[in-house]
Amino acid sequence: MEIVISATRQILGKKAASTGAGLIRKAILEKGTANIILATGASQFEMLKELVKEDIDWLRVRAFHLDEYIGIPETHPASFRKYLKERFADIVSPQEFNYINGNADANEECARLGKLIRKHPVDVAFVGIGENSHLAFNDPPADFETDDAYLVVKLDEECRQQQLGEGWFPTLKDVPEKAISMSIRQIMKSEAIICTVPDLRKAIAVKKTVEGKISPMIPASVMRNHKAAWLFLDNDSASSLSTL
Fold first, then answer.
1. Minimal CA–CA distance to 142: which of 155, 125, 131, 126?
2. Are 184 and 139 a contacting pair, CB within 8 Å?
3. Beta strands at 150-154 and 229-234: parallel, antiparallel or unpaired
4. Structural domain boundaries of the chain?
5. Averaged pLDDT, 108-118
6. pLDDT 10s digits, 140-196
7. Using 50, 70 and 90 to split pLDDT, how confident is the model at 235?
8. CA 36 to CA 24: how far, in whole Å?
9. What are phi and psi of 119, to 5 degrees?
């Protein structure tokens, strides 16, 4: 896993977007199309702002949604469908965006999306990590073994507290307890991973991810086994690292 540290989250976002855009253009040049995964949350604001400015033939790009809460409508302020439409899809109009419908039957939705993504191997996954080191909504202990592409997961207390702390919900009881998430193995099948992680509150999770044991208890640590993964940090999120 290659680590790139920038002074600010704005510079981090630009570097992550530029690297990811280059990989998307390469896939389009080689195959005619590119398949990508997009994450959400506060950590992706700057990266997405820069990514939509990149010179990419978006009509040749198919996107997949990383995770979504179960039981909230698309109109909810915390809806990841709403987030991705406003910050990405409505701006660049990709060929196709396969959203997770958190209001559908969860098991049927997992099966539907799993069938789709297996037809379209992913070229670039844009992800982040949580304060508890989760990858997508795979909280510790994450399932490293399942071959299911999408899973119904229970969100742990630390994960739900993060969503509250980022301002997506008014109270903890309003944060859903379950979500649909892309699985660890499915994320790891991506040809390349661009992981964007700013902010001091992520510093301990970053340290565990980079320096801890590769373990389901540190879900994001699995990216160290990937052949082409980049971890983009700012000075704050990198501040606890001892190896750099």
1. 155
2. no
3. unpaired
4. 2-234
5. 97
6. 999 999 999 999 999 988 888 888 888 888 999 998 899 999 999 999 999 999 999
7. very high
8. 8
9. -80, -15
Phi, psi for residue 131 in degrees, rounded to 5: -65, -20
Q: Which CATH number fits domain 2-234: 3.40.50.1360, 2.40.50.140, 3.40.50.1240, 3.30.450.20?
A: 3.40.50.1360
Dihedral-angle region of residue 132 (phi above 0 means left; psi in -120 to 50 means alpha; beta otherwise): alpha
pLDDT in tens, 65-80: 999 999 999 999 999 9
Tell me the DSSP string of the chain.
Answer: -EEEEESSHHHHHHHHHHHHHHHHHHHHHHHS-EEEEE--SGGGHHHHHHHTTS---GGGEEEEE-EEESS--TTSTT-HHHHHIIIIIHHH--SEEE---TTS-HHHHHHHHHHHHHHS--SEEEE-B-TT--BTTBPSSP-SS---SEEEEEPPHHHHHHHHHTTSSSSGGGS-SEEEEE-HHHHHTSSEEEEEE-SGGGHHHHHHHHHS--BTTBGGGGGGG-SSEEEEEETTTTTT-S--
Q: What is the pTM of this model?
A: 0.95
